[in-house]
Amino acid sequence: MRNYLYLFFSFIFLLHIFTEFYTNNILIYILGILSFIMLIISFPLANRLFKILGSAFLIAGFFLFITTDIQTRDIPPLLGTNLSLLTLLAVLPWMNSVVRAGRFDTLMQKLLRGNVKDLGTLYQRSTTAMMSLTAFLNVSAATIAQDVLVDNLKPIKKDVADKFVMMATLRGYSLALLWSPLEVLIAISIFITGVQFGALLPWMLSITIFMYIVDSIWGRIYFGKYKYPASRMGNNQLTNHSKKKIAQLALALITFLACVILIGNIFDYEFIFVVTMLVFPFAFIWALLIGRLKSFWVIGWDKFKHTTNNMHNFIVLFVTLAFFANSLNASPAQTIIQQPILMVADYPVVILIMVQLLFVIMSMFGIHPIATIGILGGLSTLLLEILNPLSLAIILTTSGVATVPIGTYGLVVTLTSMNLKKSPYKITYYNLIYSAVFGAVGIFVAWLAL
User: Fold this and answer.
1) Nearest Cα to Cα of residue 245 among 120, 131, 387, 110
2) Which parts pass through the membrane (predicted)?
């Protein structure tokens, strides 16, 4: 039965897409009931951390709900307000699949085995490769890169090699999350603030370029003193075929970004919905153009079923978060929570710092940045009275992304910890300064955008 949950979940997601084109209160109510059923199914199957988060949101949401004027019969629609995010997560595997079908993932392996003389040069190359493929592969890119680097760096002293891997891969990974339209953190920030992706993108790219340059210079200086083993270099010059694949990947990324911005400006649809509707046809056409349609279908269908069958953590998080956020918005308790923000309303930069610190503190306790953004979403009305939408979108996105390399119990840090057999706290420690600089840059840029 568990292997066929994707059929039930897919039906709900398709119904949600239909309501985006044809708004109907009855269907919205039905979607709320179906969201509750998804929660009931997914809760026992979710990880312990997400069960705790979901329970906390439900309990807090219940106590907030009883202080509102909302009738019990009106609860179902409150549960389905985050279905757009779940639908986006369900279609993302198709983009991942065309990258794998086109064997672009093997391109990373070639890039990481290229002709370099020292670890400083390899550091910059590793960060670049991670940033490029993470935009399409997300966590899978980190797994591929770490496997290749661990193997390549065996002749290097283990402490140095481990430090290299946990820095290069996590930092490169975070740099891609800042501007990729496929990243959920950006989708939620835009969902909360209502800012156009095209307006946000230049700011995100500016921060990415700045952080990339700063980190690359640091990496070249810090790791430049370690020689890369000559025996591992061999004949690893990039072939014309590899260069062609790099050009194809860059073109696909630029085209997808352009399509998202263009369609978002022409049609009056939310950013999340535009990306959701664009992913599959874009991936299909891409696979067709490179002659990998059959592989795309085989890989994509299996990956879609696996992902949809196992999205219990996000179902628990987003459904309970929707109940909590809607209850908070309608509760008198919101006024009490708003008081600390109102006290510093004349000092927007203080609010920006408070938002960043909240993300850092929550990440240290294993709270996913998505959950933190969701909590802040309940205060979005007040925050938007003090900060403009663009500034708020910048600080929400950068604050969330800045905590990714230091989120002690985050997915990527956990995977790195398992691959290297290192304490997640050590990984957090090595990336702490980087994340602090990242967060500070985010605060500064958000202040500039005020």
Assistant:
1) 110
2) 5-22, 28-45, 52-72, 78-99, 173-197, 203-223, 246-265, 271-290, 311-329, 341-362, 369-387, 393-415, 427-449
| Least confident stretch, 72-86, 392-406, 412-426 | 412-426
Amino acid at 279: V
Mean pLDDT, residues 29-43 taken together? 95
pLDDT tens-digit series, residues 171-207: 999 999 999 888 888 988 998 898 999 999 999 999 9
Q: Which residue has the tokens 């840059």?
A: 441
Q: Note whether 84 and 192 are within 8 A (CB).
A: no
Buried b (16+ CB within 10 A) or exposed e, 238-257: eeeeeeebbebbeebbeebb
Give long-range contacts, CB 8 A cutoff, 24+ apart: 71-74. Answer: none
CA distance 257 to 265: 12
The residues facing 118 across adjacent strands are 227
- Radius of gyration of the chain from Cα atoms? 22
The pair phi, psi for residue 115, each rounded to 5°, is: -70, 105
Residue whose structure tokens are 């800045």:
402
Q: What is the pLDDT of residues 109-142, one digit of tens each?
A: 777 766 778 899 889 988 988 888 888 877 778 8
Q: Where are the domains of the chain?
A: 98-290
Burial (CB < 10 A; 0-12, 13-18, 19+), residue 259, is middle
Residue identified by tokens 């509707």 is: 277
| Separation between Cα atoms, residue 37 and residue 397, nearest integer Å | 31
Retrieve residue 357's tokens.
């610190």
Q: How far is CA 279 from CA 37, 90, 91, 111, 403, in A?
A: 27, 11, 7, 26, 27
Structure confidence at residue 85 (pLDDT): 87
Q: Counting Cβ atoms within 10 Å, is residue 72 exposed (0-12), middle (13-18) or buried (19+)?
A: exposed
* pTM, rounded to two decimals: 0.85
Question: Cα 297 from chain centroid?
Answer: 25
Q: Which of 20, 15, 104, 129 is nearest to 283 (CA)?
A: 104
Q: Please state, in angstroms and rounded to a whole number, the distance separating the CA atoms of residues 35 and 319.
A: 7
Beta bridge partners of 139: none
Q: Find out whether 355 and 89 touch, Cβ atoms under 8 Å.
A: no
Q: What's the whole-number mean pLDDT along residues 333-361?
A: 85
What is the per-residue pLDDT for 442?
Answer: 95
Alpha-carbon distance 17 to 31, whole Å?
A: 11
